[in-house]
């Protein structure tokens, strides 16, 4: 079994920064794409950013230039550096990963989520 555990959420003032981390553990041969999604109250879950194993990134328009996704393959960890935060960034942020437990199998996993609140 594979687990994704997020950390780093919290309360921050508008214009502030937070850094989210997500560590994958368990039976892992390799991890392909990793990403961050978010869900605000009453809204659908939406993509924030993704990163391939090789480091290619993709961002939602509403975070491009403010958020940076990165990963450490040796530590099975993905990060989300969030700068210039706005109240509308308030949401539960979820980590997602395509994990290969063996060379021939791939499954998609979600973390439990971490709350980010941007408020003065």
Layout of helices and strands:
Blueprint: E1 2-7, E2 10-12, E3 18-26, E4 30-39, E5 46-51, E6 57-59, E7 67-72, E8 77-82, E9 91-102, E10 105-110, E11 114-118
Parallel strand pairs: 2-11
Antiparallel strand pairs: 1-3, 3-8, 4-5, 4-9, 5-6, 7-8, 9-10, 9-11
Tags for this entry?
120 residues, mainly beta, seven-stranded mixed beta sheet, four-stranded antiparallel beta sheet
How confident is the prediction overall: mean pLDDT? 97
Beta strands, count? 11
What's the end-to-end separation, in Å? Answer: 40 Å
Helix content: under 10%
Give the ordered list of helices and strands: EEEEEEEEEEE
Q: Any idea what the shape is?
A: elongated
- Give the DSSP E fraction (strand runs of 2 or more residues): over 45%
Radius of gyration: 14 Å
Largest sheet geometry: 7 strands, mixed
| Class inferred from helices and paired strands | mainly beta
Helical segment tally?
0
Low-confidence stretches: none
Give your account of this protein's structure.
This protein has strands at 2-7, 10-12, 18-26, 30-39, 46-51, 57-59, 67-72, 77-82, 91-102, 105-110, 114-118. The chain has 120 residues and is an all-beta fold. The strands form two sheets. Strands 2, 4, 5, 6, 9, 10 and 11 form a seven-stranded mixed beta sheet that branches. The protein has a four-stranded antiparallel beta sheet with strand order 1-3-8-7, with no helix packed on it. The termini are far apart.
Short description:
The chain has 120 residues and is an all-beta fold. β7 and β8 (77-82) form a beta hairpin.
């Amino acid at each position: 079994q594979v687990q994704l555990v997020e950390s780093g959420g919290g309360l921050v003032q508008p214009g502030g920064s937070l850094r989210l981390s997500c560590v994958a553990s368990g039976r892992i041969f390799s991890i392909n794409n990793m990403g961050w999604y978010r869900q605000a109250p009453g809204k659908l879950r939406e993509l924030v950013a993704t990163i391939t194993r090789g480091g290619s990134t993709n961002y939602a328009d509403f975070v491009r230039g403010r958020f940076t996704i990165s990963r450490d393959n040796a530590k099975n960890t993905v990060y989300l550096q969030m700068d210039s935060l706005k109240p509308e960034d308030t949401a539960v942020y979820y980590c997602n990963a395509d994990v290969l437990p063996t060379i021939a199998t791939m499954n998609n996993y979600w973390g439990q989520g971490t709350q980010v609140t941007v408020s003065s």
